[in-house]
Fold these 2 entries.
Entry 1:
Amino acid sequence: MSRSLSAALAAFVGLSAATLSAADYNLTAAPPADQAFQVEVQLKVGGDITIRDPDAKPADKPPKDGEPAQEAVKKLPMSVEGKLAYEEAPLADKQSARHYSVAMATIKVGQGGKSPSLPDGRRLLVANHTEQGVKLASPGGPLTREQLDLVDVVGGTPFLDGLLPGETVAEGKAWNVGAEVMGPLLGLDSVSVCEVSNVVDEGAASYVKFQVAGVVHGEVEGAPTEFDIRGLGLFDRRINRVTRLNLAVKEKRSLGPATPGFIGVAKVNIKREPITKPEFLTAQAMQQARGNSLDLLVLPSKDLGFEFHHDRGWYLASTQGPRVSLRRVHEGNLVAQATLTRMPAKAGVKPSLAQFEQDVRANIGAAMTEMVSSGEWVNQAGCGCLGVIARTKVEDIELEHRHYLVRSPEDGKTVSLVVTLAAGDMAAVADADRLLADAARPLGAKVAVKPTTKPAAK
């Protein structure tokens, strides 16, 4: 055999061996429709947040013509260590039930810190699978914003299998993951850039490891956000599901209309294992989950002496003793601001609508252009309510001021609610302000609140 023929044959044999050694893997999710899982999530976050500074002094110089006013902000170091453990089982199309056996975190911001957790009555949640990610609701009663933030983390389990190509790929072969997967996986309201590519790392008879890498840009609650992602996933070939996902996410989030900015890194480790008989998601729990789940949140305030059930468009802006400020966001824009204030108690004195209307007129003064409406009613917690809506015009901008008084029927404690919005945002706000008054109740009241949608009396 000639040297040249021997070399050619050796090259052919080597090429064939290399070709045969590159294994092919079918990475298609095909799980049982009724499969339940035990899920564990470990979360570590470190970085800096940017928040509005309510104590800042006004700017020395007003903004130049055509330039927006600069908000006073401050930057604080922030860290989070959290752990979640829950059972998850299919409930309906694009819906699952969860029971959290563990939900805790240690959060440090600046010199302060807190450790939120889920109370026993809120451990059963319903997870709705939407284009913006997992939207959690509680059949046991409304969550606080803090409790919702505790369990609303990146890496929603219903979207893990979307990281797969849905076809057979070879080891070392890459595939792209679209915005329709990465958006909800990261909890983005919208996606403007999605450049994520996965590749098979290694495989065996029972599993395939794949790498995840790329960038995703979008918006969260009106704040432009950039993610730089690196991670490793595990596809279980026995059950045809992604059962592990470890992500390191560099995040750059701008200051939003009602939410902090953030620059830092989050590390998320997700593990889910199939279970045949859930311990907590019993038939009774599943039946409860199929009932009415509250999409509302609750804002309790000891200083005000009340709690307020509200939709998710309201965000807490600041708390200063007996004064609470809220901001409302609609489709990523700030559309209203609300201030809740504890009023001085006047024993035995029940405020009248006529006097309240007079007080509103005096408070607004010469800027008022129209008294739109006024009314008196009793909300579903039995509290007496007064409402007055007036309009002003400031530098060609028409504003609407919606004033409410809510009075406890038991001890006469009274809270004032003032909502301010531009006339152009009336459709976006609708009656969200009225619902705050309708859903107010004294702390500790044993009343089921179901906010009405009836407009204030004209």
Entry 2:
Amino acid sequence: MMSESRPKKFPLDLPMMGRITETGMILNLITPVLDCVLMAASMFWKVGWSLVLGFFLSAVLQVFVAKDRIRRALGRDGVREIALATAAGAASSSCSFASAAVMRSLFKGGAALIPSLAFLFASTNLVVELGLVLWLLLGWQFAAAEWVGGIVLIAILAVLVKATYPRALVEQARGWSEPGRAMPPAQPSWRAVARSFAGEWRMLRKDLLIGFLVAGALSVLVPGEVWRGLFLTSAPDAVRVPLNALVGPVIAVLSFVCSIGNVPMAAVLWMHGMSFGGVLSFLFADLIVLPLVGIYRRYYGPRFTSYIVAVFYAAMVLAAIVVDVGFSAAGLVPVARPHAMGEMADFAIDYTFWLNLAFGALAAYLFWLARRNPVGAAAAPSCCGHHA
């Protein structure tokens, strides 16, 4: 009787199976990380040239516009002084930390409180580079809303501060003792422009890096259902708009991202269902992130810091709601495109490529010029005939 043929058995290679499993686990961990980094890099690629342009314009204005004259002109809380401070801020730096330092020098040098605060908000919300990045990542409607909202915010802030003006706290803050060192004024020149440009990049590089990485990670890792639940996307506008405006600054504070670094994160929030006003309140809130609150505390003391943070938060929320209602009534609120974040991962030789190439060369030249002419170096004739 013939025996039945049985399938041949092969011994299991357990070490090999273990290595395959381990490799699969590593790939499962690495792939999302690479996706997050790719998304962050693609977002930066879309806006890199605009950052260089904005920082260059900001550096030119900071070097060639005399701040002492501005300080002398801001001694009252009048409409003229507030308007002048707003215009000066819009022509100044977009770095939240640098703006806070300039605001401190204005306020402690004799400028009135409301113009000093107007300068602070204008220098972070009405600057060219911020509008350019918003336009590229979110559309012209957001750029317009940021600029209009910045003016509305300053107007609301002025009303709130006048209605609650704490005279004793203001005088205490103006005389608050805090460590600091004065930098010698630089003679206006293109060498000074290069140093200002490089210095602003140094101040902002961590914020920009964190901002793009956080936005890339959240766009890849957080499910859309989580965002939609947080932003009450199914609620009526009468409920959703004010609640989103209230939660926007809270997200900004917890994310620790300020200055232009919060724009990529704003794009993520918008694509996942946050209201128009909620995104605006998030953008406005770069001035109350925790590191800056700590700086205010060192500059002005804890009591005055608590006051201005509370006033800032109220003004941000109210301004965001006003702009949301106004833009909605005018039909200017864009429709969020759920696949827009994925479209950012496309790299191509287009106008963005050539603009990044041109402005990258400008940035490289300015960094080289700043490195060749550090602060305190011996004065030498510049290309324009001035001295550094």
